[in-house]
Write a structure and sequence with these properties.
It is a single chain. The chain has 120 residues and is an alpha/beta fold. It has one domain: STAS domain (Transcription Regulator spoIIAA), CATH 3.30.750.24. The protein has 4 helices and 5 strands, in the order E-E-H-E-H-E-H-E-H. Strands 1-2-3-4-5 form a 5-stranded mixed sheet. Helix 3 links the parallel strand 4 and strand 5. The chain is globular.
């Protein structure tokens, strides 16, 4: 499952990957991400929470790259990744090199509590 939510007042976009995430789910969620981004001003923060991820379809890599490009174009200020199990990182660090030309601040945490101070 893929879930996208936002908090406009905090300029925060949260992407959660839960259980088995398919390419179809991420593509279906793209319109929702676009709608949420339309409400958030530049300098926003993105939280990518993989704490409940079991497995992610390898085909989602293209979608993740497109989202990084979109976040960059919209003026992302900080990306906070919650990745408790490094083996479930589908290559965010490598994708960052290609999709964030002038990198926003990138922070990787083991759990959401460790990430909390970066969301204020």
């Amino acid at each position: 499952m893929f879930l996208a939510t936002s908090n406009k007042a905090r300029r925060l976009l949260m992407l959660r990957y839960i259980g088995r995430v398919t390419n179809e789910e991420t593509i279906q969620g793209e319109a929702e991400v676009l709608a949420l981004l339309a409400e958030i001003p530049p300098g926003f923060r993105v939280v990518q929470d993989l704490s409940q991820l079991e497995v992610m379809d390898a085909k989602t890599v293209d979608w993740v790259g497109r989202m990084m490009d979109l976040f960059y174009e919209r003026g992302v200020g900080r990306v906070v990744r919650v990745i408790p199990d490094p083996s479930k990182d589908i290559g965010f660090n490598i994708l960052t090199v290609f999709h964030y030309r002038h990198s926003p601040e990138i922070i990787t945490c083991k759990d959401i509590l460790q990430a909390a101070p970066y969301l204020e």
